[in-house]
Amino acid sequence: MSSPLSPIAGAQGALQLLPETDPVAEMIRRIVRLEATPDGRSVLLVDTDSRRPGLHREVRNEITPAELIAAIRTQGADVS
Predict the structure, then answer these.
(1) How far is 46 from 19, CA to CA, in rounded Å?
(2) For 61, which of 3, 7, 24, 45 could close a Cys bridge (C-beta 3.0–4.6 Å)?
(3) For residue range 35-54, what is the model confidence (pLDDT) as tens digits?
């Protein structure tokens, strides 16, 4: 955790969501992840899909942390 005086600000790292694996080939066929942009000012939702042979699709959606928080507050459910 960085202090308010730290030169590092913004988001860092990645979080894997919804990994789908092929049990026969023991390979990841699809994965959705959240990752910070290199400047740390936005978050990317990256959907990598390689379920079809010979086809590799990657879709990236960018959102600011403030927009992500607003979407979660609007669509999410309160957890006690």
Answers:
(1) 12
(2) 45
(3) 988 888 899 999 988 877 77
